[in-house]
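Consider the tokenized backbone below.
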């Protein structure tokens, strides 16, 4: 009797098919995880900018606000202060985004488009939000007293929740 020490062609084809299925399933799971991570990073970046604004507003005697403007695939953050002679930028940053950003309150929502912007301002006396408004470049569909800002990336999302009366904010996603 002949002693075979290898695999047959059918066994090799079945093994390669099983490996292809396992690798494909892992790739799909990894792709979804990357999408979720990108949405979460964008929301986390926005949330940290709000924290930075809060710190400036509570520690100084001047008014501070954060203006986040959507410019193509970039969110441009401008920290501004009003020392009595109007708003001037004192710090800025930008962040690449993928997907969509939606601002909403209890009655309406608005997906930001190019040149849309969000203004966030704290009341330096009690720490509540004084303004959270999303502005449309055409001046219509402005959303005031925003309660959440959602970052979507190919079906995965992360949300920054804002509580107008308390000035608290948190990220979920």
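A designed sequence for it:
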């Amino acid at each position: 009797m002949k002693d075979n020490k290898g695999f047959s062609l059918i066994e090799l084809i079945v093994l390669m098919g099983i490996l292809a299925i396992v690798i494909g399933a892992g790739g799909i799971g990894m792709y979804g995880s990357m999408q979720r991570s990108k949405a979460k990073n964008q929301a986390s970046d926005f949330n940290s900018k709000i924290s930075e604004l809060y710190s400036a507003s509570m520690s100084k005697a001047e008014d501070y606000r954060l203006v986040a403007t959507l410019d193509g695939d970039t969110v441009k953050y401008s920290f501004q202060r009003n020392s009595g002679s109007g708003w001037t930028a004192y710090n800025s940053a930008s962040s690449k985004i993928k997907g969509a950003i939606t601002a909403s309150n209890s009655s309406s929502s608005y997906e930001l488009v190019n040149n849309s912007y969000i203004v966030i301002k704290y009341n330096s006396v009690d720490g509540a939000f004084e303004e959270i408004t999303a502005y449309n470049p055409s001046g219509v569909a402005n959303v005031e007293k925003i309660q959440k800002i959602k970052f979507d990336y190919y079906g995965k999302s992360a949300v920054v929740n804002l509580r107008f009366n308390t000035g608290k904010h948190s990220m979920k996603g």
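The CA atoms of residues 128 and 158 lie 23 Å apart.
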